[in-house]
What does this fold into?
Amino acid sequence: MRYRLLLSYLGSNYHGWQLQASGGPPTIQGLLEEKLGIITRRAIRVIGAGRTDAGVHALGQNAHVDLPELAVRDLAQSLNALLPWDIRILRAVPTDNDFHARFQAQAKTYVYRFWTERAFLPPQLTPFVWQTGPLDFLAMQKALPYLLGRHDFSSVENSGSDLKTHVRTILQARLRAAAASPYLPEHAPELIFKVTADGFLKQMVRNLAGLLVLVGQKRLAPEALGDILAQRSRAANPAKTAPAKGLTLARIFYPNDPLLTKNTKEGSEDAAQGIQNELTSAYGGLGLI
It folds into this structure.
């Protein structure tokens, strides 16, 4: 029987999603397969919706797995009892045998967090933000329209992939300032960059974040992003790749998604509100959604 998994994890202690060679550093996929092997007493392969790099977090990663008939009543509960505390299964439900977590994904949303106060960084936020120092919020906002739409994004792709096409469509790109914490001294705001696309290239979001920081530091004009993308070359991009720890895979979209519509009131404008409410309740303290 095929199961769909919806999971969240902190990436700080893991070498990304993808399984490594035997004896290699721990990965999310590797641990899932190990624990499912304990439950089923056989070798299991988990297929993820996408790979996250070492140190990248996830709120709404998806995967599918084919399992024999199980003796456990609640697969999510059984897995969570075996997994480390920083990997949690939010849902584990039977699904159609033709469901494919990777190939049926229509779009993904990533979130990147910038801490713009130079004087201090609370240790509770250290694993989740890039401490950039002051950034010009309005200049960064002016740069966002140059990212929207269908482009060849080779200029924000790092080497190491063998994709046939580098064309992707960014459907939404937003930047907002988080509310200041009442428990901290007066400080510059945390900025949150949210981007949704029909797919992403290798370290694409981290390179976009790097470009936005250059714009925010007034080292690059907002309109320069259009010129950089047009050159379709990583060599044309002066930005460094942003640190992995600031990035979170927030959501993956599927057509007529039963997990996202569950508990959603009829007529709601956001078909994902039900599951988003659950994620906010569990992880809202991270300030990601």
